[in-house]
Design goal:
mainly beta, disordered N terminus, Immunoglobulin-like, five-stranded mixed β-sheet, 265 residues
């Protein structure tokens, strides 16, 4: 079962999400190993943030040969149709489709696992990378996902900026997993990070944040790094810093107050 906690927060938040692999249907397969590396260039957090993603996953099929449809969730902030990415099966590129979440698309309701993920994650803007693979009987295969991307942010208009990878998706696979998730951050050091079982080490012009699990069930839902923004009122109480709209709203309130004051005299 997938279980993700989502707390309501009135402060505007940007949260680039990255997730593991979710099969369309429940299987007897296990994800025995997963190694994820995310590189983030946080040199200038008020402009464009470049980053790259590499995820390597080993899946073992103990039963007869099966065909599996697999989705990898990413937020629309970091993955869109104009991003060049690649999925390889045992070192050979394979075709995949890019499916942004659309409530009216029946695809999302054909899979109870995908539906549960979307309901539990609390993330309305998700893109799924979907591929179909065949896994022979009693065989392990390796899937690798790679892409480079960037996002444009303005910390002056944000309360928080998260980079989050969801390790809880590993629980949809049978058995234990050995997994490592590594954030390599260049430039500005994060203000916070998920410190449960995290090892922090120095990197030239940056730091490495590493989480590891050894042949176990991962009960954490996600790991993250976070930057504090400069959210304030005014002029940035409107999400994403629409200061022009803020000024107009303030002007209307002042005008109404002045009119009422004059009428009362």
């Amino acid at each position: 079962m997938l279980s993700f906690n989502s707390n309501a927060n009135p402060v505007p938040i940007a949260s680039p999400e990255l997730g593991g692999l979710i099969p369309k249907e429940d299987t007897n397969c296990s994800m025995t190993n997963a190694n994820v590396i995310v590189e983030i260039d946080a040199t200038n957090l008020n402009k464009i943030i470049d980053f790259s993603f590499s995820g390597n996953y080993t899946i073992f099929n103990p039963s007869e040969m099966i065909n599996v449809t697999i989705a990898a969730p990413f937020s629309n902030m970091i993955y869109s149709e104009n991003i060049i990415g690649d999925i390889s099966l045992n070192d050979s590129s394979i075709p995949f489709s890019i499916r942004p979440f659309n409530f009216w698309d029946s695809l999302w309701f054909e899979s109870s696992l995908w539906k549960e993920y979307l309901q539990g994650s609390g993330i309305p803007y998700i893109t799924f990378l979907i591929c179909n693979i065949t896994i022979p009987e009693n065989t392990s295969i390796t899937l690798e996902y790679t892409f480079d991307s960037n996002i444009t942010v303005d910390l002056r208009a944000l309360g928080e900026l998260f980079f989050r990878y969801e390790v809880g998706t590993s629980r949809v696979w049978k058995g234990n997993v050995t997994e490592s998730v590594e954030f390599r951050v260049f430039g500005k050091t994060p203000d916070e990070f998920y410190n449960n079982s995290c090892t922090v080490s120095d990197l030239q012009d940056g730091k490495i944040y590493l989480w590891e699990w050894k042949n176990e069930i991962i009960y954490d839902d996600y790991v993250y790094i976070m930057y504090h923004g400069n959210y304030s009122w005014p002029p940035y109480f409107i999400p994403f810093g629409n200061s022009f709209l803020t000024i107009k709203i303030i002007f209307v309130f002042v005008l109404v107050y002045v009119i009422k004051l004059r009428r009362s005299k």
